[in-house]
Predict the 3D structure of the following.
Amino acid sequence: MSKRLVSIMMLAMLLVCTGTWALSVHPVKQVKASTSATPSPYETATAIVNFTPPAFNLVAKGIWTTVYIELPSGYDVNGTEVSNVAINKTIYPDPSMPAQIGDFDHDSIPDLKVKFYRTNITDLLLALGQNNGTAILTLTARLNQTISFEGSEAVKFSKMGGDVNCDGTIDLFDAVATLSCYGAREDELNWNPNANFLESWNVINLYDVIVIVAHYGQPF
Ligand SMILES: [Ca+2]
Ligand SMILES: [Ca+2]
């Protein structure tokens, strides 16, 4: 063995012993699992809610109030749990009147049509203790276990017999509103429960016109 080779081997042993020639180890970079935001357990979509009509004469007669519900893009109104649809979290649909899906306002967005007992809503408005005014009715429901929707509409109300449009006066506009639904029966297309003051036949007829005439121009 040459002196040169012996020198190299001794130098190598010296480096290993002192750690100078240790194997280089890079620490493993720790990669955490993805921490993307956890979806909210109750996502709430804003619904468009239309009471038909958006007014309640509290002394007029009718069996049902129809409400149409539209949801924003990305939500399917077909998934609505109809039994949980509620007005102001207290009034639920009439279970004997099945909900319907359609496009009742012809805007290419599906609507859910739900019927409520009208007296449940008028009782709620009567409890406000006012002769006439405006109230916000809020409708809520669940689409599934994680998504709900909510929508509100301002509705007018009046306790005045003959105040068909519920604006607090009885005038020509009420007479015109009655003539536009004259002859209509409950649930027909042009039916207006706010013009049906005498419930005997649930039809808008001469007797309802007489109520308007009797109170025409009368202050409440
Ligand atoms: Ca629609
Ligand atoms: Ca009026």
Q: What stands out?
A: The two ends are 126 Å apart (CA to CA). Residues 43-215 form one domain.
